[in-house]
């Protein structure tokens, strides 16, 4: 079972009990319906320029939003052929897993809500280390964030890293320009905020800092980004699954050299 089938953030009502594991396993389905008031307050029909889709999403407005998503990401949408809840150009979009909840929860967009996650590592005598933040709920996470309207994925990776984890400066520029190792993951995130109608997808890019660059990265000590409690290097092999946010541990283990 996925986290998004069993767990909820503190400000959510409970999901449907005994949520089916897959869409094909659905026999009777009575999901909880929940959209947070903050989503309605920020819907573009209530607030011009708001971050959430209109309350009554039309095919036309969904089309306009999809056109804003970088073309490369359009191919990565999670699609299912029938019984879905969001349609666009004859295609139906639904969370890849039943979540026991409809509505948008706290997520602004119908369908995929896009994020970007920088996965920054360094070599250490204890083994490869990764730079993680502590989120408000106490879980450890990559310092990622939502791809906001008008922002590219590379810009989001840089901005989130310098807002949540490391002070901006020449060392960060060198890290991003010279230490890129490629995209580790691009797709669905097992995020406890997901619903059947709105879910997280992300692009994770790996950067491996040289000892010189790692030594110059100055970790943030003040909370510039709302809800971040701290930032630290962690030895990957000592991380525990239960301490980690969403499916971040899966991508971190993919890059661990084990040394
Ligand atoms: C996760 O939520 C993504 O992997 C990303 O790390 C994060 C973005 O949400 P916020 O940090 O902006 O809440 O699904």
Please tell me about this protein's structure.
The protein is of the alpha+beta class. It is built from eight helices and eleven strands. Strands 5, 6, 7, 8, 9, 10 and 11 form a seven-stranded mixed sheet that branches. A two-stranded parallel sheet has the order 1-4. A two-stranded antiparallel sheet has the order 2-3. Strand 5 (111-122) and strand 6 (129-135) form a beta hairpin. The model is unreliable at 74-84 (pLDDT under 50). 5-O-phosphono-beta-D-ribofuranose is lined by residues 115, 117, 141-142, 144-146, 189, 191, 200, 202, 246.
SS field, number of helical segments? 8
Shape: globular
The major sheet is characterized as: 7 strands, mixed
Relative strand content: 25-35%
Amino- and carboxy-terminal Cα gap = 31 Å
Helical residue percent band: 10-25%
In short:
With 259 residues, this protein is an alpha+beta fold.
Helix-strand layout with pairing:
Layout: H1 3-6, E1 32-35, H2 37-41, H3 59-68, H4 71-74, E2 86-88, E3 91-93, E4 101-105, E5 111-122, E6 129-135, E7 140-141, E8 145-146, H5 153-164, H6 170-178, E9 180-188, E10 198-208, H7 211-216, E11 228-235, H8 248-255
Parallel strand pairs: 1-4, 5-10
Antiparallel strand pairs: 2-3, 5-6, 5-8, 6-7, 6-11, 9-10
């Amino acid at each position: 079972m996925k986290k998004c089938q069993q767990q909820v953030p503190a400000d959510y009502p409970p999901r449907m009990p005994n949520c089916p594991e897959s869409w094909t396993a659905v026999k009777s389905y009575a999901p909880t319906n929940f959209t947070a008031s903050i989503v309605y307050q920020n819907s573009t029909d209530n607030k011009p320029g708001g971050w959430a889709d209109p309350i009554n999403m039309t095919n036309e407005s969904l089309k306009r939003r999809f056109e804003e998503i970088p073309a490369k990401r359009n191919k990565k949408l999670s699609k299912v052929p029938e019984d879905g809840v969001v349609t666009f150009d004859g295609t139906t979009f639904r969370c890849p897993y039943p979540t026991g909840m409809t509505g948008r929860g706290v997520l602004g967009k119908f369908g995929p809500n896009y994020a970007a996650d920088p996965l920054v590592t360094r070599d250490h005598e204890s083994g490869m280390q990764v730079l993680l933040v502590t989120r408000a709920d106490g879980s450890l996470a990559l310092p990622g964030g939502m791809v906001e309207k008008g922002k590219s994925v590379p810009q989001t990776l840089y901005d989130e890293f310098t807002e949540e984890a490391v002070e901006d400066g020449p060392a960060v520029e060198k890290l991003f320009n010279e230490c890129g190792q490629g995209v580790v993951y691009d797709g669905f995130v097992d995020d406890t905020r997901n619903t059947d109608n709105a879910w997280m997808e992300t692009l994770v890019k790996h950067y491996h800092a040289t000892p010189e660059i790692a030594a110059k990265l100055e970790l943030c000590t003040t909370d510039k980004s709302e809800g971040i409690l701290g930032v630290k290097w962690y030895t990957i092999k000592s991380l525990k699954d239960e301490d980690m946010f969403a499916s971040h541990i899966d991508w971190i283990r993919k890059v661990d050299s084990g040394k």
